Structure formats: C-alpha cells, structure tokens
Prior knowledge:
Radius of gyration: 17 Å
Order of helices and strands: EHEHHEHHEHEH
Structural class: alpha/beta
Oligomer: single chain
Shape: globular
Distance between the termini: 9 Å
Strand order of the largest sheet: 2-3-1-4-5
Amino acid sequence: MVTTTSPIRIGVMGAHSTGKTMLLKRIEMELRGHGIPVARTGQIGRRAALVPLPKMEQHTAASTEWVMAQGIADEIAAAARPEPEPIRVVLADRAAWDALAYLHAAQEWRQEAPHRLERERLRLLASTQAPKYDLLLATVLDPALPVEHKHDYDARYRTLVDRHTHTLLTEDEIPHQRVTSDPDSQARAVERALQLCLQEAAV
C-alpha cells in the first residue's frame, strides 16, 4: 500500500467531451485493481448549473471562481474521506486551470475584453494549486471525432477551450502530459499514473 501521509493527486483538464472522465475512470480501475484506495471528484459543472451559475460560452469571473473553489474543496474532502482505509490517491476531474481556460475561451468567444485584475487574481488562485498535483493530464481536442447527439456543443467554443487550456499550461510552465484521442496516448497516461502510485507504494 501507499505509505505517504498526503494522498497522491492526479488532475485532468481539457475541453468538453475529450475523454477526461473516461480517462480517470480507467486510472481508478487500475489503482483499485492493485488495492490502492482512491477517490475521484467530478460533476462540478452540473452543480454550478444548479446554483445557478453561467456555463460554457457564458462563463464569468464569478462562475470561474466558484468552480475553482469548489474543485479545491472537493479535492480536500476526498483526501480526508475516512473509508475502510485512508484515501491514498485523489483523482481530480477538472484541475484548477480548467475553469480558467473556459473563462478565457468564453471571453474570446463573446469578443469581450477581459478585466485585467480579475484575470490576474484568478490565475494566481490557479497557480497556488500547482504544487498539489503529482501528475497533471491535459486532453487534446480531436475535431474529427463525433460528439454525442445529446450534446449541443458550439464547435468554435470547444476549439477555443482547447487552445486556451494548452496555452495556459505552457505560459505558466506547468508540468503536464498531453493526452490525445489515440489509444496509445491514453494507455501511456494510464500507465504513467499507475507507475507513479506503485512507486510511492513501494517507498
């Protein structure tokens, strides 16, 4: 078993319908198969809609801050969960920079000039979370892949989210692994996550 006192944190971010949740489910299954207690966060977008807060193209600084704060709180709660054994790995569906990328994309989509101080403040909040992640996975949009008919997504907005996601990570020099729709890329991400946790288990 993993013997570190603080759980390993693996985060994922990227445009909608690029396989984030499925990727974390695969990692979760592998970890549980090796007997490692794991917790996975998620569905922040659905909860934001219940508040209600604007989403997608209508994303605002306020909704961004709520999503980021809720995600941070979810990760802390998951790590503290007193299951039969202490949680050793937290899988975060939508790391802190994710909401920021969605905001930047929404502002560009609306052709709206961003408020500099708000942007800087939110970016600072995201940057405080960087040391918490042992591994950050960023999915890459494949526009050739079809989206389920139940999702009425704006193609241009998805493209903007994808671009802003990878731009943020590059500009802030955040270590991460890009994950494409290619099965080999997916497998490498799962394997890296598994090896990271197994190495910690051997310490």
